[in-house]
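Quick one from the shared queue. A colleague (R.T.) flagged CDP-alcohol phosphatidyltransferase family protein as missing a structural entry in our internal table.

Convert sequence to structure tokens.
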Amino acid sequence: MKQESKGKINKKLFADRKRTNILSNPEQRLITYLVPKIPNWLSSDGLTLIGLIGSLLITASFLLAKYVHVSFLLFGIVSFFIQWFGDSLDGRIAFYRNKSRKWYGFALDIVVDWISTVFIGLGYVFYTEGIFELSGFVLVALYGWAMIVSQLRYKITGEYHIDSGPVGPTEIRVIISTMLLMEVLFPGVLDYLVFALCLVLLVNNLLDTLKLLKQGDERDHKEKAAKQKNVNTY
């Protein structure tokens, strides 16, 4: 494939969203490379299902690590890649094939993302013990909060962002995969890493929420000013 055609594909695939995450450039290049190679029989919904299966496999890796051996968490890292593959390519393949369904895809993506988050959180709850079980619940709640902020931002600004500054879903996957590797090497450390991740997400969500409220306030002022202008015109 010529470089020019790759550029055209890249522009087409990512025209609907603005990415600010650290790994956006290499991630987009990889997706641009993979999309044309997806067989025709594999649909966008099929890729969504693959992503969901990846999430279930992550849950399974926690259970196997709990009841068989901690090294099964390495299977969780592979499962995160499976989840990324399905979740990242489902919408892009629809754009590539000119079969995108904006609101159907948007609704399906949000629902499946939430189901996946719950299953991954449950996997950690099953794996850990004692007070740290609460961390799994808190992690799911905080990620849900981040999802809500993302949807509200879309409603207020009209721009769809799935990233929170330099960190997006891909970075979260990489971070958690690194945490799983650390747990295999140093059993017991995962509980404290999850607690630290919860603190980071809490601070980030608070900052994003304050920014969102400011954007909402600015839109309110603009709409009121526009209404007042219309009244004065008549």
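The radius of gyration is 20 Å.
Helices lie at 3-13, 24-34, 44-67, 73-96, 102-127, 133-157, 169-185, 189-233.
Added to the table.
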